[in-house]
Amino acid sequence: MTSDSIDLFGVPSGPRTVPVMIPMPAPRAYSYAVPDGVAVEPGSIVQVPLGPRMVAGVVWDGDGEDKVDPRKLRPIEKVFDCPPLSREMRAFLDWVSTYTLTPPGLVARMALRAPAAFDPEPMVEGLRFTGVRPERLTPARERVLALASDGFAWTRSGLAHAAGTSSGVIDGLTRQGSFETVFLPPPPVVAAPDPDHAAPRLEGPQTEAAADLVEAVRSGGFGVTLIDGITGSGKTEVYFEAIAETLRAGRQVLILLPEIALTASFLERFQDRFGARPAEWHSDLAPRIREKVWRQAATGDVRVVAGARSALFLPFENLGLIIVDEEHDPAYKQEDRVFYNARDMAVVRARIGDFPAVLVSATPSVESRVNGDSGRYRMLHLPTRFGDAALPDLHLVDMRRHPPQRGGFLSPVLLRAIGKTVEKREQALLFLNRRGYAPLTLCRVCGHRFQCPNCSSWLVEHRFRGQIQCHHCGHAERTPDACPECGTLDHLAACGPGVERIAEEVERHFPEARTIVLSSDLMGVKRLRLELEAIAKGEADIVIGTQLVAKGHNFPLMSLVGIVDADLGLSNGDPRAAERTFQLLSQVTGRAGRSGLKSHGLIQTYQPQHPVMQAIVSGEARDFYEREIGERERAVLPPFGRLASVIVSAESRADAEGHARGLRQAAPRADGIAILGPAEAPLALVRGRHRFRLLVHGRRGSDMQGYLKAMLANGPKERGSIHVQVDIDPQSFL
Ligand code: ADP
Ligand code: ZN
Known about the structure:
The longest helix has 15 residues. The relative contact order is 0.08. By secondary structure, the protein is an alpha/beta fold. The site of adenosine-5'-diphosphate has 14 residues, from α7.
């Protein structure tokens, strides 16, 4: 017999071949032979040989492009016993690949992040009561049997634990014939949420907003809703109603959160409302849990996932709603391997799946606002805080009129307010978006500045650790005592503040107060969650934090927020600088007064006339957006125009620059698209690699991807250490 088979019509056909997408930077799927008797369909997760290795991949759509004799193709080794990736998911992965100009294998890789989950979870061994009673009954045995006579199966340890006895007692009963062994399906990672567990009584504008969302879910189909409501207005309660309705319809829900690792309080709220926690998905999960969540999202056993941006790539069985909370947050942009914005891709995922998406923010992105104003997104407004909670009273502190003491960074105005707050036994939050003690160290004698050997950036002093560190590559060295340039001892000066230095100043002024610094470099996620809980319970008087305190935490005793340096983000050449500053400062000041305490926000600035500062204190977000949208429109910046950047990096500066110039020359001519650069990147050196940037600017609707593809195809090819990274819709311009 030959390897050819005869089909039903008697026509000889070669072995079947299918394209398989492999999780690596290949430009397309590769063809494999399907051995006789093996059943695969598009989406099947399979194991295939790749060179000397075995890898897991996904059977893709189409016939495969390899024009190779099928008999020479290598065969699929194994089909995993796993639900296939849905047609929607495959279409989504293809879309992301095409949009971001990333090889499809690299995008597919994000959907295959838990290889151990491709095999089914093993059954769990359990015991069931047979009805046979032992000859001799002890109190422990009686307790065990009382529990087990419920007719359900128990695990050995679970039963022993519940009965408050040792597993030896259970084993004794088993020998007496009281138990038989049964196999149980693996337990779910989380219990099923109940849409009607504890529905709140909504109030005022919440009622209408929730009804609107529920209607969107009921009528089904794709649509985007933007919930624009101030902090504390009940946005979460409102979108919970959309989740409940989706659950009632038997479909799964994905909630994206920008810093899931820090949102313990969110999980609790969800549990209060639905009687069970959502499954979590983020990079800090234990591998075993990750695998379970992946698998159970695919089988449909997990109904709701709350996760970081990568949760968008989970293989849901029947996804019916995506919520993007804090939709404006820059953390939704991934800038590693696959450069994508999870907020935008969530909308794409919903469109492909034909279900609703809900974007939520107190300070929506300009992009989403414009979509709302134009009617492309439905807008729901929640203009007031729930209950008797009031927004903090906000004031600018003009630092030219109220300068801090020499060597300090806190104005007398802010110091007085902190003092009063602490006296009242309430809490103060001081916000400065800068880790460490000081962003720059220099020698007072020769002027030497400590710079990273691998990057074009200053080394940041971290005094708690006794180190100076690079925030771009992680390079760290012991804080020196002497200048390496001139050798002078003890003449190094710290320039500018980081949170550690503010803490030092606070402790000098308020030695009795309990002060805590919250910064991602000082503690892991677990510790951070504990600290946040402790703060919520009032176990600190003064909290000093970086941006991670801005996000979603509820501190009932917080009645003062001080912004140490409101100007910090305004001058970095980023077209979104004003928007970002507005959002961040609004979020931080929104931490205060959430429980009805009269609260204040003091914003230290050297530019009190700046429109961002004016917008924040006046509470006139609308004016700010109008102005910002007008400026974007005039400059044809997103969303009125399109941007893409191309970053060329190489070990030698000349290589990076030469390659970038080559690309520029290869750029096609296109109506409405212009290319700028190459220019040396503001961060000219990172991890020993020199960087040059090109910026492509197009009118709305221009084919940026086509333009970039032509440029990359006609331009010089990557070689040696040269790497080209395309970033569509860039958020960072460094
Ligand atoms: P946002 O998400 O807009 O910041 P939240 O949904 O967190 O607002 O609501 C703020 C606070 O008010 C929360 O503690 C929430 O539990 C409470 N809250 C809001 N709406 C209601 C309601 N209808 N019934 C009871 N509590 C509510
Ligand atoms: Zn560095």
